[in-house]
Automatic annotation (TrEMBL):
InterPro entries: Glyco_trans_28_C. It comes from Pedobacter sp. KACC 23697. This is Glycosyltransferase. It holds the Pfam family Glyco_tran_28_C. SUPFAM superfamilies: UDP-Glycosyltransferase/glycogen phosphorylase. One of its GO terms (molecular function) is hexosyltransferase activity.
Amino acid sequence: MEFAFYVHHHGSGHLMRCLAIASALKNCHITFLGSGLEAQKSLIPNSIDLIFLPMDTPNEQDHDFLDQSLEGLHYAPLNVSGQLQRVNIITSFLASHPKLLFVVDVSVEIAMLSGLCGVPAIVIRQHGLRDDLPHQICYHNAVGLLAPFDVRMAGQVPAWINEKTFYTGGLSRFATSADQSDPNKRQVAVLIGSGGTSIDHEFLNHLSGQCPGWTFHVVGNSENSNPVHNLHFHGRWNDPRPILADCCIVIGNAGHNTVMECASLNKRFIAIAEERPFKEQEEKARIIGALSLAVHLSAAEILHVNWKEILENLLTSRPNWTGFIRSDAAERAADYLINTHRSIFKHD
């Protein structure tokens, strides 16, 4: 069977999700298409074909660039050379791969392009307010929708979208485990993602100053220029589980990877919602906050709340993440894709 994944370049969640699902698609031919895949090449198995797409944003040679989108689309600028090149590459690829099922994670425009080429597309669902016209058209036209989370985290969506969606259950690279950390040690993990964050030096210094009795372990692309006794910078770790295991609380943004990893490790979680298109993180943080799985803060609040009080209050209870992560989520997604492929194409 032939599958292709469009992998969006913003943050790491899209690639990690696609890698997990692709690994469960046994004996299939798989291609990843995306911008920025070169930098992530070491994470991608050699068995997966890669097509590197140029960015669709204007460069200094695009003198006639017009920031104008077409009705029904989110982003379709005029006179951008990279945009024309990537469409040419994608359509050429689609034309040379019959009986292909295209998994789009995520882009309304790429899903629409797939439909225009007559190639069936599965669209990955994300959190956020997706009731705008482009998303509604995209969801209607897709042959199926796949949600890499538990249905309890779906939020309020129209019935027809729920009925069209296959919920895999929570997908995490970490196996589920009980939280064995010692709250008396007052250790906190602070996760800095790659998609843009308000968790910066100003915030970290503010946090450590408000909570001198706590120790903060910072994981991600950040360096400490002014050493502080209770701030420890670990840099970027491909597998931060050893650090997370010793921490009784995790502070991070409400990106998909971070939420799923906290769920799999049953961690007390403070979800800082960054500004994202369609209020994606804000909606996700609101949902897990309402389910008593996390404390929800907006990025605008983090310098104006009592962190010592928040941390101490968190120690008085434990979240119940049971069932939000499924160990077979990737296999369930793969089975769904294979069954969809069989329903669309004739197989010998």
